[in-house]
Design a protein that fits this description.
- The complex is a heterotrimer of chains A (about 120), B (about 500) and C (about 140).
- Chain A is mostly helical and about 120 residues long.
- Chain A has helices at about 1-5, 5-25, 30-50, 75-105, 110-120.
- In chain A, helix 2 (about 5-25) runs antiparallel to helix 3 (about 30-50) and helix 3 runs antiparallel to helix 4 (about 75-105).
- The radius of gyration of chain A is 21 Å and the shape is elongated.
- Chain B is mainly α and about 500 residues long.
- Chain B has a domain at about 275-490.
- The radius of gyration of chain B is 21 Å and the shape is globular.
- Chain B has 20 helices and two strands.
- In chain B, helix 1 (about 5-20) runs antiparallel to helix 4, helix 4 (about 110-130) runs parallel beside helix 10 (about 240-265) and helix 14 (about 325-355) runs antiparallel to helix 17 (about 395-405).
- Chain C has helices spanning about 5-25, 35-55, 55-60, 65-90, 105-135.
- In chain C, helix 4 runs antiparallel to helix 5.
- Helices cover about 75% and strands about 0% of the residues of chain C.
- With about 140 residues, chain C is mainly alpha-helical.
- Chain C starts with a helix and ends in a 6-residue tail after the last helix.
- The chains are: A mainly alpha (about 120), B mainly alpha (about 500), C mainly alpha (about 140).
- Chains A and B meet through helix 2, helix 3, helix 4 and helix 5 of A and helix 5 and helix 6 of B.
């Protein structure tokens, strides 16, 4: 039961491994970015589920009641920042892929590496 | 204004960046960049003078006291790194004017300066912050702007190099966030000083895993062997200014992050006794020194050669850390400064060759010593320092490194340091031989590089010799910083 | 898609609504969920929709590139300006207490201004990214 109770961490680990595997195994530059995004998303889930308290409400002050349990908002705020970072990274990565496609005519990592090695610089 | 120095250190380049992006004239953007970097250097020097006698400056952002708010914290270690980063920035930006005019289009130039300032802001922010999550944010500010800067390189391979760096860098950053998340989960705080207080009492497997994630993530950013794959291409194809800037700052700041996390957050006892970190770092550092130096010997592109040499130099720094003694750590910190001035000078010399010849392959350098005597002399002088010839900074840090190894009775380690230096002789000689003992074969009318490139380059070369002869200042600060990190001494 | 009358009319109705919603998210940010980042993205989405239906050329006429580029920089400067104002007021960077006669109002104004800066920057950056991706490889724009 303890293992099932920690299901959010299982999801986190599973997504992380899926993303990481895509990142390592794929040679296509866009697919790599997809893998990176899944990898980063797993961390978002990790942080968000960390702040959740069973029975906790959104951390907005409820007047007149003292015994309300609030969820921890800080991990959520932190992960908002991390999401912004992830979005910027993805934007830069996609921009690079567009430029690579224009310069090389392909987005397959193997073909690009082969072209790189042809000419000494 | 004087008590606002810690925040101004970050805000000045951060505010200068949008201004540089807004102006259309590249000359104006350049001028703003120079002003901002010199102001940063002035602030960093003032901060170092302030903490020189062992004090710590704390600055609560938004008036929220630590551990609730984000705190900026300047002690000897961070002030020392701040001066290095800001100093390299201040030397590289005047150089950028001519180099950028040659290598980067008119339209992109203001954006280039903007990205350079953002990168500087991120690097300074990493160094000054006392909050681990804030550290991650600054790390990504500097990294994302570094990806953009590298992609602006003149060759199309710069794009692919930047892409590879982006993927590796993002994996590293994500590992770091996971580590931070686990620490937060166990302690409920993000403030470094608070974490250091709480972590020993919680302990357990989560903290161990957090440490592992952080160590791997930072090693990726640091380009520690065998996670260095992104570095040679990124440095080889980036614009010359960017290579000089990143090679002397980015990995140094990552090294600083490693020190902070290992010594200030987790503590020496946990890192070296519970986790036996030195047994992971020591072999990797030695392999890095030998393997990267050997690879450097076989490179045909001098920027790539120097990039591999950077991987080896990172090995020396990590070697210093893995000794976990005051002398070892002093050597690591000294090499942080020394390698910044050495590699800065060497890459700036290569930038000048790029400016005149348009290539940095060894064949292109044949006979250049007669055409560009000052540039090649700077390269050879920097090379001497890299090898560790006495009277140069390279000698000082290697001396302390060997001393630290012998103190721990690790004669073999001391021997490997010397082997690394011999390999450095081999690859520097390759370039020097081509430049001095071959005849010029190209058909370009190559002349000496303009003063705008020579002055910053020689400023770093002079620093190489000045701090090599009079090492009191750097050794003093580095030793003080090492004692602070290890928690010994005054 | 500008020949599709239903899309055109629907877009003309939806775009102002999206912009209004963006402002709602923006100014409601200090009472409930919301804030500058979300608002900026929503506002940018309105222009992306407009560009999808009416084409990039007409969107450029409504919102020229130099405007979005200025937005991207101006937001950061506004954020820094608030920080500078608090420092001149004698407090720490971004300590809003000194912005008004009493700390409570100061906090209120401070967070609104900073979030406004965030919104302007995010809006500018998002639209810039869209413009550059959309205009790639098209010489006529």
């Amino acid at each position: 039961m303890r293992i099932l109770g920690l299901y959010n961490y299982w999801i986190f680990i599973f997504l992380m491994m899926v993303g990481f595997y895509i990142l390592i195994s794929r040679r296509n530059l866009v697919k790599k970015i997809l893998g990176l995004n899944i990898f980063q998303t797993s961390v978002f889930i990790f942080y968000i589920s960390m702040g959740k308290i069973t029975g906790g409400t959104p951390p907005i002050l409820v007047e007149g009641s003292e015994e309300v349990i609030y969820s921890n908002p800080l991990p959520h705020v932190l992960i908002l920042t991390a999401i912004v970072v992830g979005v910027s990274t993805t934007a830069v990565a996609l921009a690079l892929v567009v430029r690579i496609k224009e310069a090389y005519g392909t987005i397959e990592g193997d073909e690009i590496s082969a072209m790189d090695n042809q000419i000494p610089f | 204004m004087i008590n606002h120095l810690p925040i101004l250190q970050v805000i000045v380049p951060l505010m200068a960046a949008p201004v540089a992006a807004l102006v259309r004239k590249r000359g104006v953007a350049w001028f703003i960049t120079v002003l901002a970097t010199w102001a940063s250097l002035a602030i960093a020097v003032l901060l170092l003078l302030d903490v020189r006698d062992g004090g710590t400056i704390r600055y609560a952002l938004g008036g929220w006291a630590a551990p609730w708010g984000i705190e900026y914290r300047v002690d000897t270690v961070s002030a020392y790194v701040l001066v290095i980063v800001a100093g390299i920035g201040a030397i590289v930006t005047p150089y950028a004017l001519l180099s950028v005019r040659r290598e980067i289009g008119v339209k992109q130039a203001p954006l280039f300066y903007s990205a350079l300032l953002l990168c500087l802001c991120g690097l300074l922010g990493i160094t000054i912050t006392g909050d681990v999550f804030n550290l991650f944010v600054f790390l990504e500010i500097s990294s994302i702007s570094a990806y953009a800067l590298i992609a602006m390189g003149p060759d199309r391979r710069a794009l692919h190099a930047a892409y590879k760096y982006l993927i590796m860098g993002s994996i590293g950053a994500t590992f770091i966030v996971i580590g931070i998340g686990m620490m937060y989960m166990m302690t409920g705080t993000l403030n470094m000083a608070d974490l250091a207080r709480l972590l020993p009492s919680v302990g357990g497997r989560t903290v161990t895993v957090a440490f592992a994630f952080l160590a791997v993530g930072i090693s990726l950013k640091l380009a520690l062997f065998p996670l260095h794959q992104w570095l040679p291409d990124a440095y080889a194809y980036a614009p010359s200014t960017v290579t000089a800037f990143l090679a002397s700052t980015a990995t140094k700041v990552a090294f600083y992050v490693l020190l902070r996390v290992v010594f200030s957050v987790f503590g020496v006892v946990f890192a070296f006794e519970t986790m036996s970190l030195h047994w992971a770092l020591l072999p990797l550092a030695i392999v890095a020194v030998l393997f990267a130096s050997l690879t450097a010997v076989y490179q045909g592109n001098v920027k790539r050669l120097l990039a591999y040499s950077s991987v080896a130099q990172i090995g020396y720094m990590i070697l210093g850390v893995s000794l976990a003694t005051v002398t070892g750590l002093t050597a690591g910190l000294l090499h942080l400064f020394n390698h910044a001035v050495i590699k800065g000078a060497l890459f700036l010399a290569m930038g000048a060759v790029m400016y005149r010849v348009g290539s940095v392959r060894i064949e292109a350098m044949q006979g250049l010593a007669k055409r560009m005597p000052w540039t090649m002399a700077a390269f050879v002088a920097g090379g001497f320092s890299l090898i560790g010839v006495p009277l140069t900074v390279g000698f000082v840090s290697k001396w302390y490194l060997v001393l630290g190894a012998i103190e721990n009775d690790m004669w073999l380690v001391a021997f490997f340091v010397l082997v690394g230096s011999l390999l450095a002789v081999a690859y520097i000689w390759k370039v020097a031989e081509a430049a001095y003992f071959k005849d010029y074969i190209g058909d370009l009318d190559v002349r000496e590089a303009p003063l705008g490139l020579l002055v910053p380059m020689w400023a770093l070369v002079v620093a190489n010799f000045y701090f090599g002869v009079d090492a009191n200042l750097t050794v003093g600060v580095a030793r003080q910083a090492a004692e602070l990190l290890l928690g010994v001494g005054p | 898609m500008s020949d599709q009358i239903i899309l055109r009319v629907a877009t003309k109705i939806i775009v102002p609504t999206i912009l209004l919603f963006a402002l709602y998210v923006q100014f409601h940010g200090d009472f409930g969920p919301g804030g500058g980042f979300q608002a900026g993205v929503i506002a940018a989405a309105a222009f992306v929709l407009y560009a999808l239906v009416f084409g990039l050329r007409r969107t450029h006429r409504v919102l020229p590139t130099w405007v979005v580029r200025t937005c991207a920089s101006a937001g950061v400067l506004l954020y820094g300006g608030v920080g500078l104002a608090t420092m001149i007021g004698g407090a720490e960077f971004l300590n809003y207490n000194v912005l008004a006669h009493d700390p409570e109002h100061g906090q209120h104004y401070g967070i609104l201004l900073v979030e406004l800066g965030v919104m302007i920057t995010v809006f500018g950056v998002m639209v810039t990214i869209f413009y550059f991706f959309a205009a790639r490889g098209r010489e006529d724009l």
